[in-house]
Specification:
The protein has 473 residues and is an alpha+beta fold. 48% of the residues lie in helices and 9% in strands. The chain is globular, with a radius of gyration of 23 Å. The relative contact order is 0.17. The structure holds protoporphyrin IX containing FE.
Length: 473
Amino acid sequence: FMKRRRSWNRYPPGPASFPFIGTMLQIDHNNPHLSFTQLCKKYGNIFSLQNCWNNVVVLNGFKVIKEALVDKSEDFADRPFFAVYTQLEYRKNHGLILAKYGPSWKEQKRFILSALKDFGVGKKTLEDLVTEEAEHLCSSFSSKEGRPFDPHHLLNNAVSNIICSITFGKCSLYKEQNFQTLLNLLEESKKEESGFLTQLLHAIPALLFIPGIMQKAFRHQKELFGLLCDLVKMHKETWLPSCKRGIVDAYLEEVEKRKNDENSSFSEENLTLIIGDLFAAGTETTTSTLRWGLLYMVLHSNVQSKVQEEIDKVIGKNRPPKMEDQAKMPYTRAVIHEIQRVGDIVPLGLPHMTYRDTEVQGFFIPKGTTIVPNLSSVLKDEAMWEKPHHFHPEHFLDDKGQFAKQTGFMPFSAGRRACPGEQLARTELFLFFSRLLQHFTFRIPENHPRPSNDGYFALTRTPYTYQIQALLR
Ligand code: HEM
């Protein structure tokens, strides 16, 4: 391997690699984005690492990431192969997030984008759904009667209910108990995916033959897919082709239509993984952004007041917000964008892999190299933002106070693999956030310490638990 690597001229530089473990001990796996910032200072915006036998190249800063993910989109559209998953029988298909770049991924992504539209994204149907859920959320906040509470659980329920309705339909078959189990398993599965043990197993799949290690590493994931399988089965048993209750029914119709096509990527097993992907990618991300949002509002009460002033002026105190209001609310839009930028909830995006030999900024990157797009380095790029490490909504306002788009705003990534849930997430963020601030003023409870604006990393970057008071306005 080292011989082959030496023969690559212009391969990106990086720290010295040790036998077997490569550079794994030189990265803080609990805060890899921070280690990358340090390595950037030493090796520049493109550097290489070695996870045991795997070549990894980390891309940093807007210029580099745009060249790779946008200008050379296809070269960087693949996903690394995780040998570990071949040992997990429920992972034999690839769903969408982990699917290799190719016809099957294209078919599934096209389906998801069009199914999201069919079930309301970008239309009034989704707005109505989120508005209704926002009402329940406000009632739950009101029931705290101004007492201190942690909003995490209530926000997570609200966001999950939306993805549940789109996926399973409103007249859902899942019972409250199933729903809570699903959310708990999602949380636990996410923890299983991050951290040193899983990284080690991904790098050395042979370790999976150690008795009991699979159960230790992936117990919750296995349970999660078991539950999703049961839900799909229940849907299938009650499925009427004339009535599509949600993405699951639309998918089952596709499985039926293509049952004689041996090249079809639609199957019930793949459906389970696709639903898992939608829940995993669509719940935690939006919930964390809203959690960052409320946190920044209590830490910056002047910003909160300005958002409320704009809401009162444009929407008033009673009518629920609509998406069309956004056009007249530049300050609120800027605040939501700034929450996403500073919250930086997917700091390292998802790993990509080169689909062919390619080049970035003159560096040679061979086919099959794992690529880490350090999105955090774009959202906090010192060459692009006036105050990269501070909460400063003015980043998204022009001299006249109008909303100003910024090219460095890339929380949903870019290129072929970009997030298909962006529009859904934007709708949820605007409608939930503005409805909450229309109803309540959020405060740090008396005698409570000021919450930290720091976050912790486990695939996503989330705030530490905090308590707030929601005071009726
Ligand atoms: C992928 C961010 C919400 C579904 C991604 C990626 C990022 C991201 C950074 C990686 C793209 C890449 O590989 O380059 C976010 C953020 C969200 C959000 C910040 C909310 C604030 C959602 C929602 C859904 C969703 C609501 C549900 C529909 C997905 C899927 C992928 C993905 C399926 C994989 C796409 C592929 O591999 O082709 N997202 N996301 N996301 N996201 Fe989201």
